[in-house]
Each structure stands twice: as C-alpha cells, then as structure tokens.
Amino acid sequence: MSTTRRKALLLGLAFAATTSTIQPALAQSATQSLARESVIETIKQDGVLRVGLSVFAPWSMRDKNGELIGFELDVGRALAVDMGVDVEFIPTAWDGIIPQLVSGNFDVIISGMSITPERNLTVNFSDPYAFSGQTILANKPMTDGLALEEYNTPDIIFSARRGATPATVIATLFPEAQLLLFDEEAAAVQEVLNGNAHATMFAEPAPSIEARRYPEKLHVPFDRTFLATGEGFALRKGDPDALNFFNNWIAARTASGWLKERNDYWFKGDDWQSEVAE
Q1: What is the pLDDT of residue 8?
Q2: Which of 30, 169, 202, 249 is the most buried (most CB within 10 A)?
Q3: Residues with Cβ within 8 Å of residue 232, at least 6 apart in sequence
C-alpha cells in the first residue's frame, strides 16, 4: 500500500470514529431538548396544571354556589394531585377551545372532547378516558310519533352547540333538516323546550335527565345512540413526553377502577343533581 493510500485510509477511519461518537450525542441532545420543551416541564416549573374546559352537564357544570363540579373536575383534580401541582380550570367557549389550546392559554383540554380525525389534524389526543354516544332529545308535542327518517326533512329544525360533535353528526345524518347553532348547550336545549326547534342532540345522560325534568315537553324518542366514540385529552402537537405521561396516567387510573367509579357517579347516578340548580 502506498503512503498516500495509507493516509487516506487513516483519515477515513478517523472520520468514521468521530461521526459514530457525534451522532448518538446529537440524538441524545435532541431528545433532551424535546423533553425540556414539554408542557409537562412547564407544569412542574409553574406548579400548576391549567385545564381548558367547556361547561356542559355532567362533564362540567356550576353548582348552586357557582363552583365548577362534574366528571372533568374530578379528572383534572386527580391528575394535578398525581403530578404534585395545583390545578386551574379555565372555562372556554366550545368553538374556541382548540384555538385557545394551540395559542398556549392552557396546558390541556379535558372537556369530553370526542376523538375525531378532523380535530386530530390540529391537536393530538390521548387514549380515551371515557366513552359516550349522542342521543336525540326532542320536543314531545312536536315530534311524538315521528319515525327517525322523518327527522330528515326541511320542516324539521335541530339545535346544537356551535363547533361540538352533535352539530357535525346532525348535519351528516339529517342533511335535509335545518340546524340552529348556539354557543352553549343549554341554549340549544332551551330552543327545543320553547318549541323553536324540534330536537337537539348531545351525550347521555344529559338528554335523559332533561326528559325526566320536563316530561310533558321533552322526550328521548329513540333507544339508540349515534357516534359512540371515545373522549380523550387534547394537547398541542409535537409533545411526545406529555402524550406518554397522559396515556400512562389514564391507563393507571383505568386499571385501578377510579375512572369507572367517577364515570358511573356522574353519568349513571343522580346523587349529584341536588348540588345544581333546577
């Protein structure tokens, strides 16, 4: 081997040795940088978990003293306790809740948000921590005796919360019907109660509760649910550490039975109803 070729070989070996050391170091540095930028680190440093939610029973609602109660409040408080931080709940209009998350106004959405491909283009979702479907709540005198297919006519008026899953489901299943949109679910229900809309749609147990509250005016006309998908925490994209932590927290609380116990309390029982105004 000539002297020139020997030098080239030695240089090549030295370069290979150098890059084999640098590449893992660069990868480790990038991983550490991602971890430092995770919202989990921000929550730990600030000592507070900021939760965005929209008010709708029984996920989250006001009690007689104006305090927030509901399934989401239990979930958010337990999550904060397990992280060793305080929790701040930030009520937000439903149609603005994802933009507010993306803008950094809170750390995570815990608000009965159904996991959909459309939303997943903007935010990441944890594994489901609850499952619910949509049920029709109708004005009894206006709809008594109507078959399901008869709701899909131009004479039928639905109401729904703007930007919420029921609005999408109604538009998909009943494209011929009219659809009125409101900022709050309570307003959509009130339209049906007042006879300004024939029906609305939202997740159980709320429709059945409203039907029991106003048996002369409201009813749940069909014993079926629509779009029974899971609900997950929504978080900003590009944060694998937070996604991993939330998924593991949900798995642990599911395995212990705590999530089911809390879900059963708020969705299958009515002990909490004395805490809220009629």
Answers
A1: 57
A2: 202
A3: 113, 115, 125, 126, 127, 128, 129
